[in-house]
Amino acid sequence: MADADRDESDEHDDLSEEQRISLLEKSVTTNKVVLLILALILIVGISVTLTVMIISGMSDEESLVGQEAFVQVQQEITLLNQQIAEQKNTITKLEQEYTGLKGLLENSSAPTFQKVLLQQEKSYQDFIKSMQSGMYDLAHMVPGSRTWLELYNEQMNKAVQLSQKRERELKRLQTGEVLIEPDF
User: Fold this and answer.
1) Which long-range contacts (CB under 8 A, 24 or more apart) does 171-180 make?
2) 8-state DSSP, 143
3) Alpha carbons 31 and 33: distance in angstroms, whole number
4) What is the C-alpha to C-alpha distance for residues 39 and 54, in angstroms, rounded to an integer?
5) Which has the closest alpha carbon to 98: 175, 30, 25, 19?
6) How far apart, in whole angstroms, are the C-alpha atoms of residue 4 and residue 111?
7) pLDDT value at position 6?
8) Are residues 103 and 142 in the same domain?
9) What parts of the chain have a pLDDT lower than 50?
10) What pLDDT score does 56 carry?
11) Residues 101 and 121 reside in one and the same domain
């Protein structure tokens, strides 16, 4: 049991703020659905009770529902009303927490930092590409320089690929979705 609790807390620690908010939104939606179902059950219960009372009042026979059963149904209705009130309070608290978390997420520096890193990766790629172009021009001016051009081109191409991979990862983090792009 303790291991399951640790695993569950580790899973919650590994979740990002967006994932936590998403889980919170799902729980709010679930709570709303449960509340609606309870309200529907309550309405059906009340209508059945009223129908039975009306039918028994119209007939000359003894009442179908005894006084004790009626009191028990009233107690159940009271209990259901209390549960509905508790669910409403829980939903209100969760909505307030969601609003607070959403504000914290919007005001955090993580999105700004991601934008800066994306711009940095883009400028890094542009710089390497211009270096490659300059080396190509230099290699054509200097005789016998094709060997070192090929060597440096391989290293620069690898650096550009790594930069593009980092850029894709940053974009994925920014959107929170998995990008379906080929790996170079």
Assistant:
1) 171/118, 173/114, 174/111, 174/114, 174/115, 174/118, 176/16, 176/18, 176/19
2) T
3) 5
4) 22
5) 25
6) 33
7) 55
8) no
9) 1, 60-61, 179, 184
10) 74
11) no
Same domain, 131 and 47: no
Q: Are residues 47 and 88 in the same domain?
A: yes
Domain tally, the chain: 2
How far is 53 from 100, CA to CA, in rounded Å?
Answer: 49
- DSSP state, 15? S
Q: Are 77 and 42 in contact (CB under 8 A)?
A: yes
Residues 103 and 158 in one domain: no
Cα of first residue to Cα of last residue in the chain, in angstroms, is: 45
Q: What's the whole-number average pLDDT of the chain?
A: 81
SS3 track for 57-82: HHCCCCCCCCHHHHHHHHHHHHHHHH
Quick one: how far is CA 139 from the chain centroid? 52
Give the total residue count for the chain. Answer: 184
Distances (CA, A) of 68 to 27, 42, 51, 71, 143: 38, 19, 18, 5, 108
CA distance 47 to 171: 55
108: phi then psi, degrees, rounded to nearest 5: -75, 160
